[in-house]
Amino acid sequence: MLNEHFITRHNIDDGPEGAFWVPREPVFNLVTYHDTPLTDEEIYALVSAPFDLRNGPLVRIHLISLGAERYRTLFIFHHIVVDGISTEEIWDKWRKRYNGIDYQVPSLQEQGVMHQQLCHNFATLLQEKGEQMREFWRERLGDLEGVDLRFLQTGRQLTTAATRRQIGELLFGFDEDISRRVKLLLRKYKLTTYPVRANGHGPAVTQNVRAKIRCARLPGGDL
Questions:
Q1: Which residues pair with 63 in a beta bridge?
Q2: Coil vs helix vs strand at 103
């Protein structure tokens, strides 16, 4: 699959006129298998290892055994692969390979039922394991600078200021006498807008019968 994608089947070289794509030989196995679980430090080393743009490949895949029939898969992409809409092609093909070529998308009604079940499962998970999950991230992120831990707060702990955007309001209105005169004009003339100087608008009042143009300034025309 990766040999079919333009970016992942090329390497990048540099010349006098800048960087350019270089076709590479097909890679038949991009997966590195680990038969024992890896520590967090070992996984970090795999993820943070720099890419060789000249020799490639731009994708690394690690399959880590966690025990009997349990595996952890790491997909590590160079940012040049995941930037842009071409990434959708990779995920679409991956989905078809994983689900099978004859995989049928469920109907909207079935998707609705699946979505409700998924929400129920998430709610159950948060209710039963939510505090353990929050404690897990507190232990690992609590000592780091610049990390906002408000995402760990529950709904009851969030303040109104944290959950609501402040929206400014601009209230305006017309004087009753002016409003009455405008309504009279609307009954008698056709109103269209025209620019007043360069900083506002006013209505250009065109009499339907005589085709004469009259002007009326309204409050707020200079805004």
A1: 33, 73
A2: coil
Q: What is the pLDDT of residues 33-73, one digit of tens each?
A: 999 999 989 999 998 888 888 887 888 889 999 888 888 88
Q: Which two tokens stand for residue 152?
A: 């760990």
Give the Cβ contact number of residue 52 at 10 Å.
Answer: 12
pTM tops 0.70, yes or no: no
Considering just the CA atoms, what is the radius of gyration of the chain in Å?
32
Question: What's the N-to-C CA distance of the chain in angstroms?
Answer: 58
Contact 47, 64 (CB under 8 A): no
Rounded to 5 degrees, φ, ψ at 64 are: -110, 125
Q: Is 58 exposed, middle or buried (0-12, 13-18, 19+ CB in 10 A)?
A: buried
Q: Does domain 10-99 have CATH number 3.40.50.300?
A: no
Instruction: Report the distance separating Cα 129 and Cα 58, nearest Å.
Output: 37
Find tokens 């709904």 and name the residue. Answer: 155
Report which secondary-structure segment, H or E, holds 117. Answer: helix 108-141
Q: Which tokens hold the place of 66?
A: 């966690």
Q: Give the C-alpha separation, 21 to 58, whole Å.
A: 12
Yes or no: say if 167 and 178 are a contact pair by the CB < 8 Å rule. no
Model confidence over 110-121: pLDDT tens digits?
888 888 898 898
- Domain assignments of the chain as residue spans, ordered by start: 10-99, 105-148, 176-215
- Whether the bond between 203 and the residue before it is cis, its omega within 30 degrees of 0, is no
Residue 193 pLDDT exceeds 90: no
